[in-house]
Amino acid sequence: MKQVLQAADLPVPKFARFKTKEELTETIKGFKFPVVLKPAEFAGSVGVIKVDDPQKLFEVFDQCVKDVHALSKTYHVRDEVFQVEEYIECLREMSIEVINFKDFRQVLAVTDKYLGPEPYFVEVGHSIPSFHSSNAKIHEIALSACQALGIEYGVAHVELRLTPSGDLRLIEVGARTGGDAIMDLIEQSYGINPYELYVQTLLGKRPVLPKTLTPKGVAAVAFLKARPGELKQVRVPKELPTYVRNLQIWAKPGDQSLEVTSWRAREGSVEMFWKNRKAAPNMNEHLTFAKELSD
Questions:
Q1: In sequence order, what are the residues at sequence separation of 6 or more whose Cβ sits closer than 8 angstroms to the Cβ of residue 118?
Q2: CA 67/CA 261 separation, integer angstroms
């Protein structure tokens, strides 16, 4: 994927593949720290770790391998190929959902993504529409990436980082719908169902959409996370604010609450919608509410 995007002159971070510590030792000579180590295949931020200190490179790689091996058999992915990438400083991370049908492509929504603390890159929440939804360059990069990869059907999930200097860097493209309830958030905010559009393309029908989609408000999701340790009790609120549309708790007494290193540490989610609200650059109300519920 990265090779194809690079060949199309799209702004991907510097990257290189490797398999062993010996290969990593040689490969890393072409990079400046900090860097990011990640598996060549996977999702949900599993095994994706930032390395600030060259002295800790092998220690982090060992953790990356351990994380991937723990799940590779369950999800049937390759667990022997890894990648080192240039670290991209981030003002805001975004995902762009693109509907594709042969040579037709259109952006459905731009999502603001919220991440937990580094060195991990775990997504703790999302909100739609993004404050940066009107940035034409974001749309251009996302559409060009889908075209370069030859995605001709369905919804694709494109991830970008906006740097403090205003540059955009293309992190990855999934030829699939975005997870984490993003499709639900699009329906809440824009009144369109991306899954319906996806099925239309598979039936040979070009989706009919207005050129400009107008949001009805701001939709958001945030994930519940207890502090690490054994969960003794799980309590569900008797009442919730009217802006809460969906609360799911999948943790149960006896479970071990894990450190936040990937999506596996989540214990639930809460979806929210504020009608007629505008996107804001520093929105965190959904994260604050999820933390209150978690506590």
A1: 50
A2: 9
- Which residue do the tokens 């702004």 mark? 11
Q: Which tens digits make up the pLDDT trace of 219-249? A: 999 999 999 999 999 999 999 999 999 999 9
d(CA 231, CA 238): 20
Question: Tokens in use for 196?
Answer: 């319906």
Q: 114 with 126: CB under 8 angstroms? A: yes
Q: Write the CA distances from 169 to 5, 112, 172, integer angstroms.
A: 11, 15, 9
Which tens digits make up the pLDDT trace of 74-114? 666 666 789 999 999 999 999 999 999 999 999 999 999 99
Of the candidates 188, 190, 191, 209, the residue with the CA atom closest to the CA atom of residue 200: 209
Q: Is the pTM of this model over 0.90?
A: yes
